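Margin note: ligand = D-arabinaric acid.
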Amino acid sequence: MFIRSIPELRETVQEVLAHQPITDIHTHLYSPNMGNLLLWGVDELLTYHYLVAEVMRWSDISPHEFYSWPKQHQADYIWQVLFLNHSPLSEAQRGVLTTLQGLGFDLEDRDLNKYRAALTQSTAIEHVERVLRLAHIDHIVMTNDPFDSLERAFWQAGGKPNPRFHAALRIDPLVRAYGQAVPQLRALGYDVDDDAGERSIEGVRRFLHDWIARMNPLYMAASLPPTFRFPDYTPEATILRRCVLPACREAGIPFAMMIGAERLVNPALGPAGDGVGWADLSSVAYLAREYPDTKFLVTALSRENQHELIVLARKFRNVMVFGCWWFLNNPVIIDEMTRMRVEMLGLSFIPQHSDARVLDQLIYKWAHFKAILSDVLVDQYTALLQAGWRLERAEIERDVADLLCNNFWRFVGKSV
Ligand code: RAT
Ligand code: ZN
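Resulting structure:
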């Protein structure tokens, strides 16, 4: 009944982690009935923008030329350069191997065409079922962008995602570059001005209201630059204050802030060209303090922001820290962040999201993360045993369920 030894503890933690169904709270995956929006298979896996950035370091071709090639050719090139000409040691490179291995391929072959052919045997829905089963995931939160015409068509036609896929309403242009949103809002029939005056406030409110009704999102979200400030005199800050926050409050959904992505540091790299910057999190403290009835899911991209974000979460229960985002999703940093979070917040945070853009990536993103979480938990529980605390398997199951699933659902106020 009670856990008696450290080997038994390790085995228990590993077993519990292996069996706990996961809710992946932020991905770029789509319900399989959303057509080509859902990416999967070998060519998508290899042309992930993390790998494009890495291959360009070895290459003398221009990004422009690379992107002009058919996807399969891009994938072959990345395989040749990053996997065959050099050993694939980076996290994103290793991730491809973990994924292919998890899908049951023999990596001794190194035969991309064989893997490619095997995967094209399945339909999207079959592959979704298989990957979710392999990764032990039962709920996926998508990133749903009403400014994207392909995606918009699905929702406007009254489409409903598969029950395991949940919507998150992504509104970057409104709070990042309002001027860019204006023509699109007008084209969609919302009568807005170039500035954030009364007519715009009214139009954006209606836009948000309509899209919340259409998507039924679990939260509203935006990626914000390192320079994000609130309050501020910019149109973006006005839209946030007068439209976004009231819409979240009325719908009873959190606002997710992903802070610190510096867009297109190298524009030629396109989707692989974004960078990172340190953010002043006093704006998050202001929001949490002045809007106590609004909940904020918060993640920051800079490693230097992590400690202060944890301190901030200690002060505000309407702030939920989540994930090791993008450039932080590397073992050395995940280990540090997760230990720091457990030591300062106990179990009251959401340790990870996958950010997967390609379905198959779920396999590696979660396998790699769980190996680290296992070490962190074993170390923390060991300290409890050494202090004479009694531990039961059911308590470990409860804790792991909170981390990988329940903390999120409790925070968004829904149950599954
Ligand atoms: O992690 C990523 O793939 C990034 O490109 C971004 O999509 C980021 O996660 C975001 O949601 O903006
Ligand atoms: Zn993302």
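Residues 28, 143, 223, 258, 261, 326, 355, 357 surround D-arabinaric acid (ligand 1) (CB under 6 Å).
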